[in-house]
Amino acid sequence: MAGTVLVTGASGFIGQRLVKALCVAGEKPRCLLRRSLPLPPGAEAVNGDLLQPETLTQALAGVDTVYYLVHSMAAGRAGFESRERTAAINFITAAANAGIRRVIYLGGLGETGSGLSEHLQSRLEIGNLLKAAPFATTFLRAAIILGRGGASFEMIRWLVERLPVMITPRWVSTRCQPIAVDDVIRYLTGCLHEERTAGETFDVGGPEILTYREMMERFAAIEKKRVLIIPVPVLTPKLSSYWVGLITPVKPSISMPLIEGLANEVVCRENRIRELIPFRLTPYDEAVRIALAEEEPRTGST
Fold this sequence. Notes:
The chain has helices spanning 13-24, 56-60, 80-98, 118-131, 151-162, 181-193, 212-222, 237-247, 252-260, 273-276, 284-293; strands spanning 4-7, 30-33, 44-47, 63-68, 102-108, 136-142, 145-146, 165-168, 175-176, 179-180, 201-204, 210-211, 228-231. The protein is α/β, with parallel strands linked by helices. The chain has a domain at 4-142 and 180-203 and 268-279: NAD(P)-binding Rossmann-like Domain (Rossmann fold). This is NADH-binding protein.
C-alpha cells in the first residue's frame, strides 16, 4: 500500500475483528480509539474522536485508506442521527484536507424510500455523504450480521433462550438476508486490495433469504429449544422494542432503533461483489453455530 490503513470504530463489534484480520494479512493498521484497548501485534493506536475534529489531523497523517465503521447509537437514542451526521462531516473535512484516497464504509441494507426506520435512514445518509466527498468511497450495505457480540445476533439469542412463547408484531414475516460476520470481514479486507471496488456500492448478504420468524425458529432448533411465535396485528415494532429491552441485555438505545427497522425488508438487490471477491458464503445454521462457539467479546460494543 502507498500509505497507512486507518480503522475508525476499531473498538466495535466489526472493528475489533477487522483489525485482527488486517494484522494476520500483514497490514499494520492504525486504530482510532477514544480510550485505550489491547490491540493485536502490528496495530497502532491513536487517540481521537470524530466528534472532536481537532483530534483527527494526527490520526489521518500519511493515511491512504480509511475504514469508516463509526456508529453513534451506543451513546444514546436521543440525537443519534445528528451525532452520526456531525461525525461524518468532521471526518470528511479532515480526510479531504489530509488527501485521503479511499474510504470503505459498512452501512445498512435496505430500500431507499421514505418508509425507512430512523436507523436505516441514518446509515443511508452517512453513505451518501461519504460518496459525495472528494475521495473514492466503497459502500457495503449489510443486513443482520451473525456473530457473538453483535447487537442483532444477541437479541435473537436472548429472545430464543428466554422466551419459549413470543407475542410478536407482523415484522416476523419480513424477509432478511443475514450474513456471517466472518464473511463481512472477508469483504472488507478484500475491498482493500480490489481496486475495482473503489467508488462503488455493493449489497452484501449470506446465501439464504429468511424471515425473522424462520431465523428464530432455526436458531431455537440449533440450541435444541422449542419456541412458539404468535404474530398479532395490534403489536407495533415500537411497542415490541420495549419488551425486547426488558428481556435482552442489549442497550435500549441500540435495540429500539433496530427493532423499529425490522419492518423494512433487507434483501440484496444485486450480487456484483461476489464476482470481484469470490468465496464460499456461510449458510445461516453454520454461522449461528460458529457464533455460539465463540468466546464472549471483550467489550459490549456494537
